[in-house]
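$ ./design --mode recover --in tokens.txt
reading tokens...
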């Protein structure tokens, strides 16, 4: 943990240090869509990018993935990676400012990011489609780990909201593997029973992360959950509270970070100290699980 803390301090100094001759450096301005993220590291937009890989062909469409590496990466060896998917239909695909920003940030922290488009769940009507897309993306990363310079045995997932988080967690938790080292969730529904998911109860159970928490207890991969206390989708923070209470009962490795004034999407809409603190904690979480 000390090495992580030193890295964080170094990044902060780099962001606000003085130039030679005592002149203050101008503030870092990300020239890409990644500037949407409220937490920035200097030079994060210089991440090396492998663009538009087709990772799956399904239902007459091609689903594509971008892979980010640190700007200093020389291509030798393999880096652990964070898996980040999203549906373009909701403005949350791989080319959204949020996903670009997170991918750049992960790369700037010394990891790789595999960021990809998934199909829409059609407002919870077709949860299997995006869930299987996430699973296919993970399989693609592992099968192509050498050419992507990714360590397929050290992966974590990062999901958001209703449109990605439940499907990431289904892919990671329903058939757990030791190479999926952790999962992070931002304002995501962890129990779909209160979210209006149509269909029979067994379908709702299958795509609710709380199902796999109850099944596996303290054997689940470590999780970080970021909760927006002012979330306009009231069912989401309720589901998080329910999940965290169950995790504590089962002594499962789950940590909760709450933004007391945070709305849904606070990582792109609430540029305050608490938002930045939670994002920085998420990067430390990834590094601890993947590099520790």
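writing sequence...
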């Amino acid at each position: 943990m000390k090495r992580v803390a030193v890295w964080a301090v170094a990044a902060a100094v780099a962001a606000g240090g003085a130039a030679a001759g005592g002149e203050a450096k101008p503030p870092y301005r990300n020239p890409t869509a990644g500037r949407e993220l409220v937490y920035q590291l200097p030079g994060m937009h210089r991440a090396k990018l492998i663009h538009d890989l087709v990772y799956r062909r399904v239902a007459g469409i091609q689903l594509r993935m971008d892979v980010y590496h640190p700007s200093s990466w020389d291509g030798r060896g393999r880096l652990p990676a964070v898996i980040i998917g999203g549906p373009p239909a909701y403005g949350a695909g791989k080319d959204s400012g949020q996903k670009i920003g997170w991918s750049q940030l992960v790369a700037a922290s010394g990891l790789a990011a595999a960021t990809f488009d998934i199909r829409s769940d059609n407002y919870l009507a077709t949860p299997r489609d995006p869930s299987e897309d996430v699973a296919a993306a993970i399989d693609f990363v592992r099968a192509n780990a050498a050419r992507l310079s990714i360590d397929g045995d050290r992966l974590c997932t990062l999901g958001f909201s209703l449109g990605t988080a439940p499907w990431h967690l289904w892919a990671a938790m329903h058939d757990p593997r030791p190479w999926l080292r952790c999962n992070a969730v931002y304002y995501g529904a962890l129990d779909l029973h209160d979210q209006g998911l149509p269909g029979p109860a067994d379908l709702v159970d299958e795509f609710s992360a709380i199902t796999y928490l109850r099944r596996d207890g303290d054997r689940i991969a470590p999780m970080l959950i970021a909760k927006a206390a002012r979330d306009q989708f009231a069912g989401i923070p309720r589901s998080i509270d329910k999940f965290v209470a169950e995790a504590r009962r089962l002594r499962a490795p789950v940590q909760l970070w709450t933004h007391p004034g945070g709305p849904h999407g606070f990582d792109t809409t609430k540029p305050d100290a608490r938002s930045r603190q939670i994002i920085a904690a998420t990067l430390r979480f990834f590094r601890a699980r993947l590099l520790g």
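exit 0
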